[in-house]
Amino acid sequence: MRARRLLFTAVLILTLTACAPSKTVESDGPVPTQSQTPEETAPTELVWTDQSFVRDFTADDGTVVMSVEYLFPGITRAEQVPAWQKIQDYYAAEGMAYLNDAADLAGYAAGDYEVAKAMGEDFLPYGESMSYRISLQTEDLASIVRSYYANSVTGAAHPSNFQFSETFDLTTGEKLTLDDCFTDAAAGRTRVLDLLAQKGGDAGYSRESLEAELNDAYFYLSDEGMVIYYQPDTLAPYAAGLLEFTLPYADLQDLLAISPIPS
Predict the structure, then answer these.
(1) Which of 13-27, 34-48, 117-131, 222-236 has the lowest mean pLDDT?
(2) Which helix (H) or strand (E) covers residue 103, if one does?
(3) Pick from 1, 29, 102, 163: CA 20 to 30 A from residue 228's CA?
(4) Closest CA relative to residue 226, chosen from 160, 171, 182
(5) How many Cβ atoms sit within 10 Å of the Cβ of residue 143?
(6) CA geometry: angle at 68 spanning 63 and 73, to 5°?
(7) 136-153: per-residue pLDDT in tens?
(8) How confident is the model over 57-80, as pLDDT tens digits?
(9) Which among 238, 161, 239, 251 has a CA at the least distance from the CA of 199?
(10) Residues 243/217, Cβ–Cβ less than 8 Å
């Protein structure tokens, strides 16, 4: 009897084993893979796209008290090139930071709206926007200029307009400082100030004021040269707007550590 039971058990195990799905066996040898499609190959050309950060903020009654639309640069298929991904991540973080700041400011906008409503006055919703342009792109460099607009100050005589910029090494994704652009940072800064004094002198700006208000972050590269700019209400009254000075590459060439002109 025991022998028959063991025989029956053995037959059942063999039957179940035959019906069970086969398991994947891992091997140390090469594993066949599908050939890459054109979409999977690494991109050969940098293609810019928008990273958009848009939001409306409302009061308790649903009235829109603040609207923001920030456009930052993005790169198509950035994940396939580490340097490009680094640039993409930089602007993604900037966009989120702007949204977070806007959320804080929206609280003040809601307060202004409630005051205006209580007094029977019109309320102008706050608004902020950001746009950008590529001022120069070569095989190794990209320079981006961003324009920021805001009407977020109640009672202000005019909206705010500011400019910002970044220059990136496209092979590493690193953002370049003004000093990075020169083989000798001190000599480069002196040359920049000498050229600014020549150009600014004609407009009535002294070398001392140009140096005092110089911000290392406020520069970008163009086809014509390195552009140094000053925000409104720094060197001149706000009504004068943004001031830009283009320093030709020929006047900087012996000190440049970068190649802004395509070879």
Answers:
(1) 13-27
(2) helix 82-118
(3) 102
(4) 182
(5) 22
(6) 160
(7) 999 999 999 999 999 976
(8) 999 999 999 999 999 999 999 999
(9) 251
(10) no
Q: pLDDT at residue 1 above 90?
A: no
Query: For 175-192, how does the pLDDT look when each residue is reduced to its tens digit (9 = 90+)?
Result: 999 999 999 999 999 999
Q: Which two tokens stand for residue 51?
A: 């990273």
Contact at 8 Å (CB) between 163 and 135? no
* Identity of the residue numbered 246: T
Closest among 117, 119, 47 to 78, alpha carbons compared: 47
Residue with tokens 């440049």: 256
Rounded to 5 degrees, what are φ and ψ at 173?
85, 5
Nearest residue to 220 via CA among 252, 262, 177, 183: 177
| 156 band by pLDDT with thresholds 50, 70 and 90 | low
Q: Cα separation of 203 and 205, whole Å?
A: 6
> Which of 260, 68, 72 lies closest to 152, judged by CA?
68
Closest CA relative to residue 63, chosen from 118, 113, 132: 113
The C-alpha atoms of residue 85 and residue 75 are separated, in whole angstroms, by: 8
Nearest CA-CA partner of 71 in 160, 131, 147: 131
Residue 240: pLDDT band with limits 50, 70, 90: confident
